[in-house]
Amino acid sequence: MTNQVVGIDVGKAQLDVGLANEKKVQVWANDARGRAELSDWVVAQKAALVVVEASGGYEAALVSELVSRGVAVALVNPTRVRAFARAEGILAKTDKIDAQVIARFGATMKPQARVRREKSQVELNELVSRRRQLVEMLTAEKNRLQTASPDMQAHVARHLAWLQGEIEALEQQISQAIEANPIWAEMAKRVDSAPGIGPITAATLVADLPELGQLNRQKIAALVGVAPFNHDSGKHRGKRRIFGGRTSVRSVLYMATLSAVKHNVVIKDFYHRLLAMGKLKKVALTACMRKLLVILNTMVKTGQDWKSPLSSPAI
Fold it and tell me: pTM for the complete prediction?
């Protein structure tokens, strides 16, 4: 393997590919044939790392193709790449320029490569993601129903019934997929034993956070996006804010925390203790999200179901 780093700018129709130490940019079509040819080329290069900029889902098939071939692939946030380009003094933006910048970003910053996921893990993730999309559609249609004319209400109601049926079918598929995998089933059952955690939250953690139980509390909190970061300069002490992370996990964790502050004695006591210290409700809830996540991480790591009160790690 060489130290070569490949940068790929992903578009709906094409893939622009650059190397960190070369100015030449090559182009492949973003279709099955183009992705296969590009993957063959990458394997032939024996590159140390391939860096792909997240592009609204258009990159998913390529990343899966590369990872399945054993290629080290890092998926990076476009904001980080643009900040790197500005630091280099590059203000222009084209697909070719972006491919080269992405490659140099990878060579300089060395982003972490994605862990290879089995096909079953990818399929479970797709099921959970599709359910989340349909729930968003269901919410939107419910809101439309309130303002629709009498003639349209019947049409919207039929769509609501169809969406609800599809969601229930997906939930059944998700449940069956988890039950068919002993490791997933054990993990889902374990986190579901914590008050505030329900089947959907458990399924999302299994699908979207396979690292649960494998990282320490600081890393798992940062990965999900519930770790507060300092904003200090000189004598100024700014507000600490959470940033980045996995939105899908953070969303279900937020809803689980709202339930936990009512029904989970550990989280409930922690929440009210923070409020008594003068913390804003939003800040207290975020801290509770992190504490709940850390507890779940410890439960999975130690193979221990919820015990009330659980001796949880300090945060």
Answer: 0.75
